Fold this sequence. Notes:
Chain A is an alpha+beta fold. Helix content of chain A is about 60%, strand content about 10%. In chain A, helix 7 packs across helix 19 (about 505-530) and helix 16 packs across helix 17 (about 455-460). Chain A is globular and about 90 Å long. Chain B is built from 3 helices and no strands.
Amino acid sequence: MLYSTSPVAIAIFAFFVAAVLSLSFxxxxxxxxxxxxxxxxxxxxxxxxxxxxxxxxxxxASFLGICGLIAFYGFDGFLYSIGYLAGWxxxxxxxxxxxxxxxxxxxxxxxxxxxxxxxxxxxxxxSTLIVSVFYLIPQMVGAGVLIRxxxxxxxxxGVLMVxxxxxxxxxxxxxxxxxxxxxxxxxxLVLFCGVLVVLILQRGxxxxxxxxxxxxxxxxxxxxxTNEYALTxxxxxxxxxxxxxxxxxxxxxxxxxxxTFRVQxxxxxxxxxxxxxxxxxxxxxxxxxxxxxxxxxxxxxLRPVGTIAHLPNDxxxxxxxxxxxxxRTINDSTIVTWSSETLRDxxxxxxxxxxxxxxxxALLTPxxxxxxxxxxxxxxxxDFFSLMLALFCGTASLPHILIRYYTVKDASAARKxxxxxxxxxxxxYVMTLYLGxxxxxxxxxxPTNNNMAAPLLAKSFSNVxxxxxxxxxxxxxxxxxxGLLMAAAxxxxxxxxxxxxKVRSDDHAKVLHGKIAAVVLGAGAMVLGILFQQLxxxxxxxxxxxxxxxxxxxxxxxxxxxxxxxxxxxAAAVFVGMISSLGxxxxxxxxxxxxxxxxxxxxxxxxxxxxxxxxxxxxxxLIVVSLLTQPRQPTATSPLAALV
Amino acid sequence: MSQPTSDQAHNARWGLxxxxxxxxxxxxxxxxxxxxxxxxxxxxxxxxVNVAIMYGMGxxxxxxxxxxxxxxxxxxxx
Lengths: 644, 78
């Protein structure tokens, strides 16, 4: 879909982003030294720090990705909400306090605290690098997604804007993710999403009659007809289609536009004529990009989707609804979701978006995205378990998350702030269900891209709200990206160059290494953000969680709880977990289809999330290698061995 | 590294207990979704919400409740 811009929206957006950036620079300069960074947080109240947790954690993935998944697939998007929050439980109850006892602040230093081993340093540095890059990709995709409906620019423009802004910030040693800024962003995000939810409940639902003739470009698509004869009365002539189009009919209107219908044979015993549901066709041909036969333009474009075909009791509208009534109404309605397939003929490649009317009840149970769950097939179940495992173990394995935990002075404040964070994050995730369902029925969704669901939902209420929420989300992306870039650049400069390769350099050179690393990594992330743009951002973050959990979780747990862990065991586990999960992902069907453009059936991988295989693999590697490399003298026991 | 103080051991014990409780709830959710989809679709006494949503929301609230319990039970360790 193409987007038109609104000067008001752009002005609000620019003002907001500029304000947050100036504030960040100002506060960041005051806390520039590592000492200052950590010491300052010792004075920050636990409530502020707790909301900063939320601001840090609720990145583009939560807001854009989950909302998009729920809007297009129903309940399965909510699985990400549940999983992301469960990860915090693991972090709080199992990892955080023993980890803090190690007294180190970075993940790599903590893994290496007992051993002082170059193998661990290398493994941890590479792991931080790879996890950071995979976490960066969805942020970059998210940036592009936010910019498109706001400025009407193509996806890569948003990626470029974020990439250049952040690289500039990091190279000039600014700090965008200070606690106060994260507090402001976290609170605003939760607040404005709350506003959106209230608006969604106030708006209620309306039934979209399916009998609009397909002419008005701004009305949502969803025409259904049972009568071919009526179409010919409109002056439409039927067109013969090549064999690839066997499920479709096409009519040409006098204006030159074509209307394509998907043919659904009626079910049931009574013979009836087939039902024709309107489809939309986006064609890439030698004549350029066509929508429904004519060139894509502001007047001829894909129409927005996401409507309700039937409300309970055949009501036309519902009026304002309470939260429970909202869910009940969805449960009893028929909602038109959209799916797509790509057909190729001698004209070119055609992406056909077709209607899939579903009962709300079906959408509110798991299985919309993990389709095999409903069919009770094994790969689907394994995929599902794998994802839930990755999310469960992933939060505690993300280096840049754990660091946040230690920016408080004492354990009591740390605990309180974590709990404030969990409450804020939990409330937000409850809201994601309503945001997603509201988007699903808003009639404003872009069928080509589910990442856009949340901003388009806001846009369907008001341009101002849309601008504000896009600005909040965009600055969140800026903060996350700069934090990740600094962590990754630090891994390269400090852990790799200095500690592992033992290149001695003065302070000036060290800083230079870091900056060059940041630029290179930033550029790499931008390229990847453009390559991966078709994938849902939550799904991409899920992959980052898979890698983090596979590489870091076994090492972390065994280090804390198993006294016979050896340095080689840790290094081996990190490498094996990282390489196996990365390889699995790069060979998966999703990558084949959405990144490389090869037929997904050629992929050797049975399901897309590696955690179920690669986390146990990591544990196994660690145990076997540790047992094989036991030192002659007994090593110091783990401090918590007495408990286990 | 020093041996854990009794406060830390106390916290760690409660941490593991709460973790185990949550883990059981979490695995229960996954098992239901994978092996008993009909149960997930069943209506709950609340009428408007099916088991899947109630359980899912329940997991979110459980995380908050357990975190608050931990806050009350944990002793300030040094």
